[in-house]
């Protein structure tokens, strides 16, 4: 994918594979696009995505509640994880 940096590795302690990625331009390649591709490839190998995790912040245009549900992001908190919300909270 364009504007995506990603790598996969195996977590021995969880006995799970993890795909870690940085989306450099969500308007070129969306979070949903990458998630769907990973989920499809995993499914072809008989594996289901367990969940997603967001480290850091995302722009509101890149991640809303519906997208968070779609990508199986269980701990989504817009007040804490959306850039604009965090900036607004600072005054």
Secondary-structure element order, N to C: EEHHHH
Strand percentage lies at: 15-25%
Task: Give the averaged pLDDT, no decimals.
Answer: 95
In helices, the fraction of residues equals 25-40%
Topology, number of strands: 2
Structural class: alpha+beta
The parts where pLDDT drops under 50 for at least 5 residues are none
**Which radius of gyration do the C-alpha atoms yield?**
14 Å
Protein described:
The chain is of the alpha+beta class and 91 residues long. It has helices at residues 31-44, 65-70, 78-81, 83-89; strands at 4-11, 16-23. It has a two-stranded antiparallel sheet with strand order 1-2. It starts with a strand and ends with a helix.
List keywords for this structure.
single chain; alpha+beta; globular; 2 strands; 34% helix; 91 residues; 4 helices; two-stranded antiparallel sheet
What is the gist of this entry?
With 91 residues, this protein is of the alpha+beta class.
How would you summarize the topology of this molecule?
Elements: E1 4-11, E2 16-23, H1 31-44, H2 65-70, H3 78-81, H4 83-89
């Amino acid at each position: 994918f364009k504007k995506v940096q990603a790598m996969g590795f195996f977590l021995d302690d969880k006995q799970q594979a993890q795909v870690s990625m940085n989306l450099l331009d969500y308007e070129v390649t969306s979070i949903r696009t990458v998630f769907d591709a990973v989920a499809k490839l995993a499914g072809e190998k008989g594996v289901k995505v367990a969940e997603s995790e967001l480290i850091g912040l995302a722009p509101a245009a890149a991640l809303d509640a519906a997208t968070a549900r779609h990508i199986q992001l269980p701990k989504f908190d817009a007040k804490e994880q959306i850039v604009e919300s965090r900036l607004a909270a600072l005054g």
